[in-house]
Amino acid sequence: MNTINCEENCNLLDAKALGNWGEDIARHYIEKQGLKIVTTNYKTKVGEIDIIAKNGLTYHFIEIKARRGVTHGLPREAVSKRKQKHIKQAAMYFIRDLRAQNRKWKELSFDVVEVYVHEDLKATIHYMPQCFL
């Protein structure tokens, strides 16, 4: 886990703003891990993928969950089996597009990034690669 300072009063953010802020933090973190972001908020008729990143020939389909606490469970628990199914189906649309462009891939990874926002204006990031199949 890594801790990052929140530049604004994170306690005042509504749920949508908190999610957007969490995605921004996660993008920066993912890039620092050496992954190249291919696209964000990839939308299909079956669902959306927050971030698609690449490392060599491995594509990472990343779901971001930001929370102020664990009162309602861990952020990763919000990535239900149903949500995982939608992410996997959306990933197949992306793979279809890769094939159409004659681009190659070797592996797929379905990852989750948890962003915990603390009252002291810091955020803790927990990156879980290959979190589900």
Overall structural domain count = 1
Number of strands: 6
Give the N-to-C terminal Cα separation. Answer: 22 Å
Shape: globular
Question: Can you count the helices?
Answer: 2
Mean pLDDT: 87
Q: Report the top-level CATH class.
A: Alpha Beta
Give helix % range. Answer: 25-40%
**Which H/E pattern describes the elements?**
EHEEEHEE
CATH architecture: 3-Layer(aba) Sandwich
User: How big a fraction of the residues is strand?
Assistant: 35-45%
Q: Flag low-confidence runs.
A: none
Q: Within the CATH hierarchy, at the fold level, what is the topology? A: Trna Endonuclease, Chain: A, domain 1
Side by side, the strands of the main sheet go 1-6-5-4-3-2
Rg, please? 15 Å
Largest sheet: 6 strands, mixed
Structural class: alpha+beta
Descriptors:
133 residues; alpha+beta; Trna Endonuclease, Chain: A, domain 1; globular
Sum this structure up briefly:
By secondary structure, the protein is α+β, with helices and mostly antiparallel strands.
What does this structure look like?
It is a single chain. Strands 1-6-5-4-3-2 form a 6-stranded mixed β-sheet, with helices on both faces. The mean pLDDT is about 85. A hairpin with a 2-residue loop joins β3 and β4 (about 60-65). By secondary structure, it is of the alpha+beta class. It has helices spanning about 15-30, 80-100; strands at about 1-5, 35-45, 50-55, 60-65, 105-115, 120-130. About 30% of the residues lie in helices and about 40% in strands. It is built from 2 helices and 6 strands, in the order βαβββαββ. The protein has a single domain (about 1-130), classed as Trna Endonuclease, Chain: A, domain 1 (3-Layer(aba) Sandwich). The two termini are about 20 Å apart. Pfam families: UPF0102. This is UPF0102 protein PAGU1578_01940. It comes from Veillonella tobetsuensis.
